[in-house]
Amino acid sequence: MKHLSAALVLVIAAMPAFAQNVKITPVGSHPGELCANDRAMIFEDPTGVRLLYDPAHNLTGGDDPRLGAIHVVLLSHMHGDHVGDLKLKAVGEGTCGNSARVPTPHSTTAEVVAAKNAALVTTRAMGGFVANKVQGIQGSGAKPIGFCPQSGGATTVPVAGVCTSQTDLGGVFVAKTAEAKQGVEITIVYASHVNNAPPSLLSKAQQDVIKADGGIVEYGPATGFVVKFSNGLVAYLSGDTGIHSEMKTVINEFHKASLAVLNLGGNPGIYISGAHAMNELVKPASIILTHVNEPATEGGQLGPASQTARLVKALKAPSHLALSGRTMEFDGAGKCVAGC
To which H or E segment does residue 336 belong? Predict the structure, then answer.
């Protein structure tokens, strides 16, 4: 009996190490609100690995003080509102429906990667584009941006220098701190969406060609991510996507995602199909709603007449708004345990 009691004490004492939460902090245009242009989000693993998902139009630059340490930058696709052809003029300036923004020649993604000396996780086509922009920031004497070094199948962060993942659809990138036994596993997954670059970030020669032909320059497939954290949380970051069959077969049945970060918006049609996608295909324990393309809140409260509110009513799982600056904490089962 004494041996059993001692064993129980050891188990209970060890429980907090396994019960640590993933912290998720949206970074938007107006503090405490979910606004039309909001996309960016920071994820912090219990081991200390910090990820920034789609820098977008939500930062004042790579030195935005809200960022803190960023070890890995995830880029889902090349549309300007994700790669970041504009940046915030100032936090809170403009309206929640139309934040004040100014052009950035290199992209907010490249600015963050350069300023934070981060690893960029995206497909090789998009990685090459952003790497060239980073070199433009670093100047003529900068070394070419290479693939991230790995040891034992993982990249130790912080990295010694800016690098890109050698991954495409289905590829896996693992980031871990030097002290951690387990890393954060990032898988690139399919998104049903176009992936053209904003003309303002292309060279003048490319701009002239596509203008003459009425074309676009695509950088391979658009993507989402599945991120497996050290506490057991499996998060599906949808990227911009319409409904598709891999939500069930890959995201649910294979990866068993317990949290969905769902990008809304009219073009992919998720305001219409999102309830079926979440309720019947992905079936997460919780959902974070972002990329709403409308001023969804006022005073931090969801507008009852908003498209977002209508979708919330149709969702079976608890849904949480990506309010800028509010840190939410999720356990390994996908349940929000703080900040929601």
Answer: strand 336-338
Q: Are 240 and 265 in contact (CB under 8 A)?
A: yes
DSSP bridge partners of 320:
288
Residue partners of 272: CB distance under 8 A and separation at least 6: none
Instruction: Please tell me the predicted confidence (pLDDT) of residue 4.
Output: 42
49 CB-near residues (< 8 Å, 6+ apart):
71, 72, 157, 175, 176, 177, 180, 183, 184
Judge whether 226 and 218 are in contact, CB under 8 Å: no
C-alpha Rg value of the chain to the nearest Å: 20
Q: What is the mean pLDDT of residues 240-250?
A: 97
pLDDT digits (tens, 9 = 90+) for 288-298: 999 999 999 99
Cα 81 from Cα 224, distance rounded (Å): 15
pTM over 0.90: yes
In the predicted structure, residue 8 carries a pLDDT above the cut 80: no
Specify whether the CB–CB gap between 75 and 15 falls below 8 A. Answer: no
Name the phi and psi angles at 211, rounded to 5.
-65, -40
Please say whether the dihedral angle defined by the alpha carbons of residues 257, 303, 40 and 181, taken in this order, is positive or negative: negative
Which residues are CB-contacts of 106 (< 8 A; sequence separation ≥ 6)? 114, 133, 134, 136, 137, 201
**β strands within 158-290, DSSP E:** 163-164, 172-176, 184-190, 223-228, 234-237, 259-263, 286-290
Residues 6+ apart with CB under 8 A from 74: 51, 52, 53, 54, 121, 122, 186, 225, 237
| CATH architecture of the domain with range 20-338 | 4-Layer Sandwich (3.60)
